[in-house]
Amino acid sequence: MKLRYNERIYPTGEQQLMLARTFGCARVVYNDGLRLRREAWRNGEPYISDVSLQKMVITAGKKTPEREWLKEVSSVSLVQSLQDLHTAYRNFFASRRGLRQGPKVAPPRMKKKSGRQSVRFTRNGFILRENGRLFIAKVGDIAVRWSRPLPSEPSSVTVIKDAAGRYFASFVVETETEPLPELDMEETETGIDLGLSTYAVLRGRKITTPKFFRRQEKKLKRAQRKLSRCEKGSVNRRKAKLAVAKVHARIADQRRDFIEQETTRIVRESQAVYVEDLNVKGMGTRKGRRAKSVHDQSLGMFARVLEAKCVRYGRIFVKVGRWFPSTQLCSAPGCGALTGPKGLEGLKVRRWTCSCGAVHDRDENAERNLRAEGRRIFAAGLAEK
Questions:
Q1: pTM listed for this prediction
Q2: Which has the closest alpha carbon to 107: 41, 27, 158?
Q3: How would DSSP label each residue in 14-50?
Q4: How far apart are CA 147 and CA 6, in angstroms?
Q5: Which residues are catalytic, by number?
Q6: Where are the alpha helices (DSSP H) in the chain?
Q7: What CA–CA distance (Å, rounded) separates 307 from 3?
Q8: pLDDT tens across 303-347, in order?
Q9: End-to-end Cα spacing for the chain
Q10: Fewest Cβ atoms closer than 10 Å to its Cβ: which of 103, 185, 211, 305?
């Protein structure tokens, strides 16, 4: 199993300038390769192979006056930038032929300079020093603030500069699964009903909605208002833009830390987890206050992280279909009637009474139904095997 370990790094001023040069050269190489392939396609010429494109863009490019400054940065980063282009084209072709699952993938587009920049180095482009520093070719030894030791030698490292001006090193390491001690299935399996008023309802407990974006919304508005009043191209505008990015970075860090802690707790306490497959993208496209709350919750990220941890630690993870009426179905034994609240108006109903006389809390009833349906799907999968 491959995992990513992100660590904060602190390059010096000179190293920051060299990294900025590397970011720019990698972006230029990517755009040059994309431009050549587009021209070949328009002229009806054969598709340029990966090896030929590397020779045309990097090897030959360094010999021209227009691109001779490519020699100043590590060639490893330039080759990896072209590898990203090759991967983008392969994904596009696979999607077009129906060989790739998920939504359709568009063809590669030109890269523009943005707030977030990154460049990747393989094993021949970096070294981990014994003193804990990270050596990057043509950049030098960079100080790293290690939060934990790496489980194995990294196969690659991606140096990232985010919009808030922070630098990170993302290491790709190979690790084995770490199964946790098995728990009693009947007592610890749980359904998870994700929502907005309550972040998640589990068996026996609820996770309160943190509302990280809502808490910082006023501060963000003030920072954005100050940014809009600054003259374009001025130093004050650049400072105001950085202030806005720092607010966004703080919100993202808080949300990520919350999701990591809660998913770890769920995996430790539960032998089996059953989660509803929500259409988060569709929920987030609706206009109004609810759409903003959907993005603030980041329910899709929560489900992905939880699934990855269940696989890593040997827990059962089952997705229940999004069309399963978990909130409308009566969970009372022997009933199962679809008498629950329906439609958009039904979202306001938090407690309801079934025709059988059972009184349900909307979220707790959904959790019980998800647990039963997840158990059924898991048993059916075992039966097929």
A1: 0.89
A2: 41
A3: HHHHHHHHHHHHHHHHHHHHHHHHHHHHHTTPPPPPH
A4: 9
A5: 193, 276, 363
A6: 13-42, 50-54, 75-96, 185-188, 212-229, 235-269, 280-284, 289-297, 299-312, 362-384
A7: 14
A8: 999 999 999 999 999 999 888 888 888 888 888 888 888 776 667
A9: 24
A10: 103
